[in-house]
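Task 17 of the worksheet. Students: predict the tertiary structure of the chain below and write it out as structure tokens. Keep your answer in the requested format; marks are given for formatting as well as content.
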Amino acid sequence: MMTRFLPQQHARAALTFGFVAAVIYVTMITGTLAHLQALSGLVPFDMRPMGYSGPEAATLLDALGASGRHYYLSRQIPLDTAYPALLAATLVSTNRFLTAGRPVGWQRLASPLAIGAALCDYAENAGIVAMILNMPHLPAPLVAATSAASVAKALLTTGAVTATLLLAGGCLWARWRGLRAEG
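Model answer:
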């Protein structure tokens, strides 16, 4: 039997998912990704919203060395396996909270964008793993597909967050207008 969440349950879910996602994000930015950048002197794949070429991918993977590539696989990828789902769950829960009992509007766009961003992040992660495991041979289609997933992840994440913020702004505006009409 499927039950419907109440608005406060969506709010609790958004806060819980958001807190855990934020902890993982900060850990990646200040920990694993910073360490990978320090090891290689280059920006890791996860932080390249404009993508990368085959030579750029090879240069990064060479600069990381065997121990850096192992660190990517054993530290960064596990964290980035939890993060996309948590971010999507945060945004979807927030969208559902904001639209509870109201016309849906932006949720129709915001939630699918968040899910799409998570799927692209998983595709990016799979591509990074495949590139690391294929070193020193980097097939051009693999690099191109992984780079495309990085770009799509960045675009969809930006779109999902923007749509959620617009939805929140619309809800605040409607609330403010309602309070003005009452007073």
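Marker's comment: The chain has a mean pLDDT of 90. The helical segments are 7-40, 54-99, 107-134, 140-182.
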